[in-house]
Design brief:
The complex is a heterodimer of chains A (374) and B (359). The longest helix of chain A has 37 residues. In chain A, a hairpin with a 5-residue loop joins strand 1 and strand 2. A four-stranded antiparallel beta sheet of chain A has the order 1-2-3-4. Chain A is α+β, with helices and mostly antiparallel strands and 374 residues long. With 359 residues, chain B is of the alpha/beta class. Among the domains of chain B are: 89 residues, Rossmann fold (3-Layer(aba) Sandwich); 78 residues, no CATH class. Chain B has eleven helices and twelve strands. The longest helix of chain B is centred in the middle third of the chain and has 18 residues. About 4% of the residues of chain B have low confidence. Classes of the chains: A alpha+beta (374), B alpha/beta (359). At the A-B interface, helix 8 and helix 9 of A face helix 2, strand 6, helix 3 and helix 6 of B.
């Protein structure tokens, strides 16, 4: 044991830390599922919303507040069609409730086409394209497909969910990145220097956490000038979310740094002439990273929910921007729930994204913990 | 004392104090010694006697709440001339100058090779980092800013790292340079530490119990390595240990410390052959000797190390001393006496003799 044998040059490559982490992560089915869900959401909503959504988020169709169409393969006459199709709506009027409603009109059969040409758009912001994953036949100007129904203005809810996911998911991610940056930076400073720096940072986190969340959000969001462009509002919102939420992460990082700064390698680094900055950011911060990644992943859902809640309250994003919170705003009236419950369809998507993030975070935590049971 | 051109480090009456709630602990109290170029100084003493604190004080790295209360640490840079001597204790502990000396001029290796390397970086990274901090070639005069900071290139640094690993006897340096600390054994890690320490060709290497955490056969290898490297690089070594056997084979000169005070200082042969201070004598008597036939019980020093905040009056060793002189040792604080040429003892026994002979 004591002697150090020379390794043969062709020895097997060592398993690195990350390959072990990956190995442990893959064994956790739930975590892999969560990762897939999250990846799908980002792929569909954030990267390629233009392609996956059948319509643009502003497209207004003739049918207002129409219920979702069911996909059929067999028509009213019992004939089988290889190409799936939907039936059109027929407008009716309820004289007692004095309200418009739709019935399914089996005489209007709209086949669903895949990779149809639609409105030209820019994929990823620069690739010009005009194809959509699916849509109605372009040759029939009457045809439309609305699998999740339409809203008051006749806009396709499915398309709006896809576009809304883009903003909601991005806010979660960017806001969390800002939090991560702020939290790790201030936490490291606080833990490493201690004393005055520590007191200042810790008291600010306490100050922030003592504030009730929603009123603080409201106050900050109310400070956003209404004439600002949607992009500006959007970034202000992420900034606000980050500024309110960095405290927890900073505390965790501080705790880690506090214990790590006493380790021999910090002393060694100092004795080899490393500066404080180098020790903090080269030697201490990387060691906290696995912990930070987990906390950050588990905190993204909170960000998404905060955005949703704020927008729902009308304090976050405002129409014409679409986010999941903005979509759910439609649900604030009993009338909408009673007569157009398909407005609630965004909810399962929010839940799925949040569950996905939580499962991913849990899996990461187990995988990154070198002492965890395997 | 030797103050010629080969003097590297001169520690004069160094004092380090820790202000605790229980009172002031004098961790190092009036220690003086000199390290000459290319020579090895051993510092021995039991745990808690201030060896490591003294080493950290030389690097100006005394941890809070400690502070250097007095004395000086004079560093004589390579390009020695008048006015280039720096008192390390006077430098800003976070400043550029002391940082250039740390690692560049004086390097240190620690007791725990297991935790002295940052776990997220490879062995090679550590060496390259130190190289890039210090720019190993043509180290300028200490105390003067190096004009135009030229650092070693990445590829060059990597080559040096591999070369250093080869020199400290790491097998397969080409592949081990990219290995992480947890993939190396304790002995290999200590070798890497030595490689880092020597990569910038420091004039002095402070080894703070470098082999305490290693098992005996690895210890022998590491000691052998340090000795052979010293021969080729002409680095002075300050060897801190509580292991008398190790210090006997490594050091040219030995300082014995007790409760922060330096009690005896002499050439190794003088200390080992004719120790003067009762503490040194007792320490040497308590070393078990393999194969000794006698049924005599192993000698030990009676009593306990006194509490650091309530040191006994007079000579700190007097409650445990075999040659305690009532009315003197518990009253008078002994000064340092030169009993032989280069053999210094802090004990009233010799002070009295000297006074008598003077009288």
């Amino acid at each position: 044991m004591q002697a150090t044998p020379a390794h043969p040059p062709h020895r097997r490559k060592d398993q690195s830390y990350w390959s072990l982490v990956w190995w442990r992560f893959r064994r956790n089915r739930l975590a892999v599922l969560g990762a897939c869900v999250v990846a799908c959401f980002y792929f569909v909503c954030v990267l390629f919303a233009e392609f996956f959504a059948p319509y643009t988020k502003e497209h207004e169709s003739e049918v207002l507040e129409a219920q979702p169409q069911a996909i059929h393969f067999v028509d009213a006459d019992g004939r089988f069609h290889l190409r799936p199709f939907v039936y059109g709506h027929e407008k009716q009027f309820d004289t007692r409730l004095r309200k418009r409603y739709y019935t399914v009109d089996t005489s209007k059969r709209f086949p669903i086409h895949f990779f149809v040409k639609g409105k030209p758009h820019k994929l990823l912001g620069f690739i010009p394209a005009d194809r959509h994953l699916f849509g109605p036949d372009r040759r029939n100007p009457e045809a439309y497909v609305t699998l999740f129904g339409t809203d008051r203005l006749g806009r396709d809810i499915l398309s709006r969910i896809v576009y809304g996911g883009r903003l909601s998911l991005l806010i979660g991610l960017i806001g969390q990145l800002l939090t991560l940056f702020l939290g790790t930076f201030l936490g490291t400073l606080s833990g490493y220097f201690g004393r005055t720096v520590d007191i200042v940072v810790q008291r600010s986190t306490e100050f922030l956490s003592a504030f009730p969340d929603i009123p603080l959000f409201m106050a900050l969001a109310a400070a956003i000038p209404p004439e600002w462009s949607s992009v500006k509002v959007y970034f202000m919102l992420t900034l606000i979310l980050a500024l309110v939420r960095w405290g927890g992460l900073a505390r965790q990082v501080r705790g880690l740094v506090l214990s790590l700064r006493e380790s021999e390698y910090v002393l060694a680094a100092r004795s080899f002439g490393a500066s404080h900055t180098r020790i903090m950011f080269r030697h201490l911060m990387p060691a906290t990273m696995s912990h930070v990644i987990v906390i950050a992943t588990l905190a993204v859902p909170g960000m998404i929910l905060a955005e949703t809640a704020l927008s729902w309250l009308g304090l976050g994003l405002r129409p014409p921007d679409v986010s999941w919170g903005v979509l759910l705003q439609e649900m604030r009236s009993i009338r909408a729930i009673r007569f157009a419950p398909w407005h609630l369809i965004p909810v399962p998507f929010v839940i799925a994204a949040i569950l996905g993030f939580n499962m991913l975070g849990d899996g990461l935590r187990d995988a990154l913990d070198p002492y965890g049971r395997r | 004392m030797n103050t010629g051109n080969d003097t590297l480090l001169q520690v004069n009456n160094l004092r380090v104090e820790f202000g605790l709630r229980e009172g002031v602990v004098k961790a190092v109290d009036g220690v003086s010694f000199t390290v000459s170029r290319g020579r090895t100084l051993g510092i021995i003493g039991e745990s808690g006697c201030g060896k490591s604190v003294a080493a950290k004080a030389i690097m100006n790295m005394v941890p809070r709440p400690g502070r250097i209360a007095g004395g000086e640490v004079l560093y004589h840079p390579r390009t020695s001339g008048p006015g280039t001597v720096v008192d390390l204790t006077k430098l800003d502990p976070d400043g550029d100058e002391i940082r250039r000396i740390r690692g560049g001029e004086i390097a240190m290796i620690f007791q725990e090779p297991m935790s002295s390397l940052t776990p997220v970086y490879t062995a090679g990274y550590h060496i390259m980092e130190t190289l890039r901090i210090h720019r190993p070639f043509s180290i300028g005069t200490v105390g003067e800013r190096i004009a135009g900071k030229r650092t070693v290139g990445k590829a060059q640094a990597r080559e040096i790292a591999i070369e250093m690993l080869k020199r400290v006897g790491i097998p397969n340096p080409q592949s081990n340079v990219d290995r992480y600390p947890h993939q190396l054994s304790g002995g290999q890690r200590q070798r890497v530490m030595i490689a880092i320490a020597l990569s910038c060709e420091p004039a002095l290497l402070i080894a703070d119990e470098p082999t305490t955490a290693l098992d005996v056969s690895v210890e022998a290898q590491i000691l052998e390595l340090m000795r052979s490297l010293q021969e080729t690089t002409d680095t002075a070594i300050m060897f801190i240990t509580h292991n008398l056997g190790v210090v006997a084979q490594m050091a040219d000169e030995i300082v014995v410390m007790y409760m922060g005070k330096e009690v005896e200082r002499a050439e190794t042969s003088a200390i080992m052959g004719a120790p003067r201070h009762p503490y040194t004598q007792a320490l040497l008597n308590s070393v078990p000797i393999l194969g000794r036939k006698s049924r005599k019980r192993l000698a030990y020093i009676k009593g306990m190390v006194p509490c650091a905040t309530e040191l006994p009056p007079g000579c700190v060793f007097h409650p445990r001393c075999a040659r305690f002189m009532a009315g003197e040792c518990d009253r008078l604080e002994p000064g340092v006496t030169e009993v032989d040429k280069g053999h210094w003892v802090r004990c009233l026994l010799y002070q009295r003799n000297e006074k008598k002979s003077n009288a």
